[in-house]
Amino acid sequence: MQPADLNMTTTVTGHQLFLFVTLDDGGDEELAGAIDVLGEGMENVDGVDGGPSEEAFAKGRFQLLRAEYGFTTQQQIVHPAVSESDGLIRLECATLEPIKGYETGLRTLIDAAGGSVETLAGVMRPRSYTSHAMTEFAYAHAMPPGPGEKFPLAAVTPMNKTDAWWQMDFLHRESFFLPRYDENEELVVKGHALASAMGVPGINRRLVHSPDGYGVPGNYDFVGYFEFAEKDATVFREVMAGLRDKVQNPEWKYVLEGPEWWGHRVRSAAEFLAKP
């Protein structure tokens, strides 16, 4: 199903690729050097405080993450190539070609080393469910991106919405993001906005959409990406628990999640390939 059929924006503002790397034996200096070469001319997000410049976004940006094996959790959709991966390289760019070239080069290197690469792709879009008031509530004071030194942890949450969700009228779908009150004006359901509100001040959130439309077999409808400080790891878990509470957030009755993958941001390919 296409965004235009759902009263959702069709505008694409950028592209992201999530390259989950599995390499059982780690890597040597030669492989690390070759991966570093792939990123030449692109911005290494790990050292950047704030959002990208127009020039950097046009050339492409990358972030290396080493798996935090003990933190990753399985959800409804079993996806071993993600959940059992040793690391992730997240790419973003205004256009797809530069980061597809990186993906092709990385896949060649990792295949030659006996490993594998699993790619999740997404497009960046303006928000479809956001009024001015909601923007002020949920985004105006949101934590901007920061360097790995400030936000060393990251989590990736791929997910699908069910067929029943996509068959709803768009006003029905949008209602799940807001709290609900009874006839006495008492809050009875938090909804998505209040269930996730505690994460706004300390967790940087990014979301991409399936490039081929929603409900496409073999694709995730959305991939969420979050960066945060170690002290906010508990907050992130509490936010996800709140979203998964189907009583307080009925939207989640229509959600099927892939693995919740956790990683630690690193600066160099040598750190990325290092085994714990």
Give a verbal description of the structure:
- The chain is an alpha+beta fold.
- The protein has one domain (10-273): Alpha-Beta Plaits (2-Layer Sandwich), CATH 3.30.70.
- Helices cover 28% and strands 26% of the residues.
- The protein has 10 helices and 12 strands.
- The protein has helices spanning 29-38, 54-59, 80-83, 97-112, 132-138, 163-167, 170-175, 191-195, 233-244, 269-273; strands at residues 14-22, 43-44, 61-67, 87-93, 116-124, 153-161, 180-181, 187-189, 203-209, 222-228, 255-257, 261-266.
- Strands 1, 2, 3, 4, 5, 6, 9, 10, 11 and 12 form a 10-stranded mixed sheet that branches. Strands 7-8 form a two-stranded antiparallel sheet.
- β2 (43-44), α2 (54-59) and β3 (61-67) form a beta-alpha-beta unit.
- α1 packs antiparallel against α4 (97-112).
A few lines on this structure:
This protein is α+β, with helices and mostly antiparallel strands.
Question: What is the C-level CATH assignment?
Answer: Alpha Beta
The overall pLDDT, averaged over residues, is: 92
Please give the number of β-strands.
12
The share of residues in extended strands comes to 25-35%
- List low-confidence stretches: none
CATH architecture: 2-Layer Sandwich
Give a short account of the largest sheet: 10 strands, mixed
Order of helices and strands: EHEHEHEHEHEHHEEHEEHEEH
Q: What helical percentage do the residues reach?
A: 25-40%
Oligomer: single chain
- Quickly give the structural class: alpha+beta
Any idea what the shape is? globular
| Total number of distinct structural domains | 1
Annotated CATH topology: Alpha-Beta Plaits
Radius of gyration: 19 Å
